[in-house]
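Lecture notes, unit on protein representations.

Consider one protein chain, 238 amino acids long.
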Amino acid sequence: MKLDLLAFAAHPDDAELSCGGTLILERLKGRSTGVVDLTAGELGTRGSAALRAKEAEAASRVLGLSARQNLGLPDGFFTEDRASMLAVVQCIRLYRPEVVLANALQDRHPDHARAAKLVADACFYSGLAKVETLHNGLAQEPWRPKALYHYLQDHYHAPHVAVNITSVFQEKMQAIKAYSSQFYNPESTEPETPISTQQFWQSLNERASKLGRLIGVEYAEGFHAARMPGVASLFDLY
C-alpha cells in the first residue's frame, strides 16, 4: 500500500498529539495517510500496552488512517542499531510515502529525540540500493521520501512551518481523547502523570492557538523541516 503521508511515533498517541490535525486535513484532501508506532508504550505509568493498542485502533478510526503498524521496539530502550534501522527502512519501502513526519528533535522524553534520529537516518538509508530488506520474502525496492518534517512535542521550539488545522481541530482532539487511560480523567484512580493533568489538556489548546496566531488562523500545528522548504509562489504562504 502506497501512502502519501506517513507519520512515525515513538509511542502510541505521539502522532495524535502532535500531527493529528495534519493527518486528518490531508486525508480530507484525498491523500492516503498512515502511522507507524515504534513501541507499544509499555513503560507508561497508566494503562497497559494492550489497552494502548485498543486506544490506538480507536484513534486511527477518528484520523481516518489507511494503515497503522506497531514495530514492537522496546519502549525506553530502543536504539539506532541495525535491526531497528532495518525495521524502519522496511516500513518506508513498504508504504513508499512522499512525506514523512517524525518525533521532535529535542524533547522531555528521551525516546522522542532518539526516534527522530532513527527515522531521519532510515529515510536516507531507505534510498540506498545496497541496503537490503525483505517483505513477505521478496526484496524491496529502494525508496526515499521527498520530505521529512519533525513535529513539536512537549518542549516548544520555533517551527519552520505551521499547518492551519482550524477546520479539523475538534476531530484532532477527539483522536487524542481515544487514549482515555493516558489523559485527564477526573474519575481515574491511576497515578497522576505530567500528561494526565487538566493543565496538560488545556495546554494542547493553548499550543495550537499560539501557533495559529503566528500565521493568522485559529489553530495550527508546527514542524521543523529537515531541509529548506520550497514553494512555487510567495502567494502560497500565509
